[in-house]
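Reopening this one. Same input as before:
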Amino acid sequence: MKLKSKYHFNPESLNFVKVEFSYEDLIRRLFTYSFVSVLIGIGLFLLAFYLIDSPHVKNLNAKNQEIKFKYQLLNNRISSLSEKLVQIQNNDNSVYRPFFEAAPIPVSIRTAGYGGVKDYAEFEEYENKEVIISSYQRLNIITKQLYVQSKSYDEVTKLIKDKNRMLSSIPAIQPIKKKDLTAFGPFGMRMHPILKIYRLHAGVDLCAPMNTPIYAAGDGIVTDAKYGRGGLGYYVRINHSYGFETVYGHLNKILVTYGQRVKRGDLIALMGSTGISQVSHLHYEVHKNGSPVNPVNYYFEDLSDEDYERMIQISTNELNSAFD
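Same output, byte for byte:
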């Protein structure tokens, strides 16, 4: 290969002088050009590597942005659920629990036991660890608050059942139908019509024809069903729990037995005049926490005959279904 000649202008002689190169100069120049070219190539490569994303990197970045977007949606959803949970907690503390005479759950209990930093150590190596840890922390808080709330609802459910049992146990009906009632003897101090002694009449006297049906005034368990020595003749005593007890005296016939569980409206006896009695009537007592109280303060006198009949029918149907 023939190298082209190179000339240099000499200003003194005003002539072009041929430049002579040695092989050493040629090798040096060639090495210099090659080295510079390599440096430029490396620089361009590094520039492209760091500033221009590859398709794989672009795909990873796109997925990363998608994950961030989904976590943002998740956090928004968590915020919405958290607000609704706060409303439920407020209703629980201010409405449900006070209604059933239960103390509100303190904030310290509802917010106790949240996870520490160590609970999220497994996420420390993730690129988006702040977003991930924040989401898990909020989920952990809601989960534990929901657990406390579920326990509160379990308690409220039990209170509801106890309340229903208590309401069913209160002696809330007159033990004979209003249409059968012919005369009424009040509660309180009076002169005993037979013994002629001024003393407390611890119940009311409900007069009606012989063998008039007598019904349990509330749910309970029969604790006495026999002939008594205190002048009541044949009588029935029912323990209704919650401090309530009822007594039905001067019966002609007892239709329940000791230990039998009865419901409000169950037929328990037929009216009579046994014991110290002059006419067919029911001596009916209500005791609260061991002391006699006026029965009319507990049963609903405004219960219509139709409602009373319907209640008795419901009780009869339930009794019959128990033996099906």
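So the earlier flakiness isn't reproducible anymore. For the record, Residues 265 and 315 are 6 Å apart (CA to CA).
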